[in-house]
Amino acid sequence: MPASHTLILGPLSLIALVLFYLAAGDIAENLSPQGCRMSWMSPSYVLQSKFNTSWTPLARRYSLWLYREVGWDPNQIQGTPVLFIPGNAGSSHQVRSIASSATRQFYTSPYVLAPEFASRTLKPLDFFAVEFNEDLSAFHGPTLDSQITYTSHAISYILSLYPLNTQIIVMGHSMGGIVATSLLPSSNISTIITMSTPHTLPPARFDSRIEKIYTKAQRTLASDPTPIISLCGGATDMMIPSESCILPTDTPAADDFPFRRTVFTSALEGAWTGVGHREMVWCHQVRWRVARAALELGGAGTSPTGKADILDTWLRDGHVLPPIAADSDGLTLDDPAAYKIMPEANHLVLLRHRGSRTFLLPLPRAERLVETPLKAVVFVGMGSLLGLGPRTDIPLRVSVFLCTASSGAEEVTPQCSPLKPSLLKLIPNPIPGTVFPAPNEGTDESEGAVAFEADVPVEDDDAGLKRWLGVRADDGDGLGWVVGGLSKREEVVAAPSSLSLLFRKVDVLFSDKAALRSHFVFPNIISNALIVYRYTPIRPAEDPWCSDPLLAPMISHTSHPAETHYFPANAPTDRILLHSHAPAPYVASNPPAPRGPLNFVIYSSGTLGCDMLGFSIGIDWSATLGRWASRFPATLVSWAIGVVAVTLFTAWGAEDRNIPMPSVKDSLSYYGQHTFRKLLLASFVVAFIALPVDYYIGTRGGPLFAPLAPLLLLVASGLVYVSWWVLMCLMWPIGALGSLFGRSRVRESPSVRRSTIVSMGLIFALIFLFVPWQVAYLGCWLIHLITCASSAQQIYQLGSTPTPSVTAIPLIRIAGVDGDVQEEKPEEVPNHEAQRGAVQQHRLDNHNHNMHLLLLMTWLLPLVAPVLAVWVRTLLTAGLTTPFDGDHDFLNVAPFLVLVDFASWNTNVLFERQRFERALSARWLLAVLAGTAFFVGPRRAYSVFDAAKIAVGLIVMIRVGRRYWGGAGWSVDSNDR
Ligand SMILES: *[C@@H]1O[C@H](CO)[C@@H](O)[C@H](O)[C@H]1NC(C)=O
Ligand SMILES: *[C@@H]1O[C@H](CO)[C@@H](O)[C@H](O)[C@H]1NC(C)=O
């Protein structure tokens, strides 16, 4: 039975949706777990009532507040201004965690300066916050514009309270970050810090005006000299895909590129945790650093490099080198007691070191270095290396040198010069066997070890030279430790490819079980936001040979120049999920994200093989599904509209061939049996074409992701079936109610028309003046739903409904339309019988047309619903006075209004074919709509509504035309007579 396809597709898509939902939940908990301490404060907010309507009319709608820590801050302003901008549905109160931290870092107790600030000229911070009444700014361009205008005036007002030429630090959370960057260029803004802000891809893409704001922001991001830093929560953030949080960055060619830094909290030194969207403002490990950076920025003056250094110091993720400490001068070791040559040792391990000494590790000869290039690796625990260390007052200081001495002499006097690091960062060093990061607790300030890496230079004139790696440890107090040595630059595991991982896992065994640093590169495994790999340790049968490693094996996975994630390599869970955020669908990155292979480094203090033989790499399907779930909802909606458009296109094709208009049920089952298969194949093939990242499924033709297209098509098609069933369920009670009141919807046309024109005019005026067109669209949909419900009821009541597949009743074309009247009235059929059949056929045809239209209009609803929600919200919070500019273009909804109204009283043929359509049928407009929905819609959903509006508009003009306004009206009866 043909219906079987529809019976399978619908439930299948529902099951897929449930799976996606579960997988997304799995991601939130497992991909990048959150370890954040709660923050505490005693908040109070002072309303800035002087910032009133004489500054901006928007002061009626929004407000400005000054945060004060109760008992700590005086009630007036005192230092450097900071403005916090909340995001979509956010509140000004979200400022409290960061503001409170700034106060409590500046003072140790009320009005007592902290020792760090006592000797400096820094000022405390005054945190202002704008209150947008939890407006839904992500969905509505004009709302976002109002926020930008208000905030810009707020800054002028705030600065008017301070001495001339004061600059303000601006912080934005989520969409607040877009407001912040939209304020540029401005000489009044010192620095912008954004948190969980989707900079490059609007999270809701239903409004073209949001796109305009984004386009402008892109230009600003590329050129404005104001330093901007973007903090991203990574995979834990389920509200925005974190790839859109990455700022366009420096290219090697452009030295004067303004300061843009993206810091993922998974790499943020001392935090090392994924942070959820809302948690970003209160996660203690993040908020104190943001507050501290702002405090320091207050004293930075106006020089961009000064600000950049502060941001790189306090919001460090280890991807750039810290400003190297000044004490790294050269060294001459003429006192034999001051140094110790380690004999043939591979590693230097210093435990409980006291005092100051330099340790020399011999370097291999040049020709061996050329063969296998080496890296010098040093780890320091409970101490600092070149000035970088965890925030503790432990005195141990370590520096690294390259030392040489002529090999002939008996008495050597090594000359040492500082070795420039290629990497210097803090890495987490949690207690082995514990969960990392600790849930609800996270990392402590004193945790972490310093990792130092440098390429060992090859010098060819070393015939008479001995060379060492020199590690100098100063002021050891017996607590810290140092581990140093040499390791291979990288290990290439060429064999496995992403494709082969689809079917099996790949085992990799450690070649050097005592390596300090093992860099694994899988050149054939791609790194992409849409795929998650699972690393599983392979454990030996016997017990581990080490009990208490200084640095337990730690995976450092740098998937993007701005993103690093750390995982303990022998985590108790055995499920380590290696993921990345770029490249990603629909996000064009600048510079292009490396399509680079999967690669990661495992650091350890020489105990790598202690309880692991190696690891295996495979694809983690649950997490991979979860990644898809959060990246393709807009694609699903858009493709479902495409499927509906294709269904309509085929149905109209039947009509063009003079076959009665099929019912939606028949159309859908035809789609399920024929069109779907062809589309499935086509979608798969098209997925291989390297389209720009904005189009189709956004994967630029990556072959590995081609199967995604048919999968999405399957789910989208299934959703159309489900939506149809839901509509039927909705219509049944409405139709039953309608017939209960015995209201006939078939009215005499001529008398209706005049009042129609009047009421149409009224509605248009209403939209023009007050109601957003989105509301009118919802009204259209409702009217059409009722029309369909009651006509379904009538057809059901007529009982003797001719089914379209039965061709007993010949189709009667209307004379005068295209001339080729095809009346093949069988002689033997009595005239009135044929008439009755024809009338019924018309009714049925019209009904089927209406139902198809209803399905299309239903799927267009999700595109207008967000703005509707914003409007209702704004009405509730700001009242009727609020201007809702830009949504009064009645042309957006006019085609639907006319069509829906016409369908509600028309008793004739709904759509009349025109003569010229024999060359090109109007139904091709639906094909254009489908094309837009499949290719452009996923990234720019609003364009699908535009295409639908134009298609329906043209169809109304061509096929309804004058008849609506009372032109030549034809009726079946008059024609037959
Ligand atoms: C706004 O506040 C200022 C200062 O308090 C006051 O002079 C002005 O009259 C106020 N304007 C309005 C429209 O209330
Ligand atoms: C900067 O702030 C001052 C108030 O101190 C204001 O007059 C000026 O218009 C502001 N400039 C910009 C570009 O916003």
Automatic annotation (TrEMBL):
InterPro entries, A to Z: AB_hydrolase_fold (IPR029058), PGAP1-ab_dom-like (IPR012908), PGAP1/BST1 (IPR039529), PGAP1_TMD (IPR056824)
Entry keywords, A to Z: Endoplasmic reticulum, Hydrolase, Membrane, Protein transport, Signal, Transmembrane, Transmembrane helix, Transport
GO cellular component: endoplasmic reticulum membrane
Signal peptide range in chain numbering: 1-28
E.C. no: 3.1.-.-
TM ranges: 636-654, 675-697, 709-734, 755-775, 853-872, 892-911, 920-936
Functional summary from the UniProt entry: Involved in inositol deacylation of GPI-anchored proteins which plays important roles in the quality control and ER-associated degradation of GPI-anchored proteins.
Domain annotation GPI inositol-deacylase transmembrane: ranges: 694-958
Gene3D superfamilies in the record: alpha/beta hydrolase (3.40.50.1820)
Compartments where located: Endoplasmic reticulum membrane
Protein family per UniProt: Belongs to the GPI inositol-deacylase family.
Record-annotated GPI inositol-deacylase PGAP1-like alpha/beta domain positions: 77-296
Gene Ontology molecular functions: phosphatidylinositol deacylase activity
Membrane topology: Multi-pass membrane protein
Protein name: GPI inositol-deacylase
Enzyme class, broadest EC rank: hydrolase
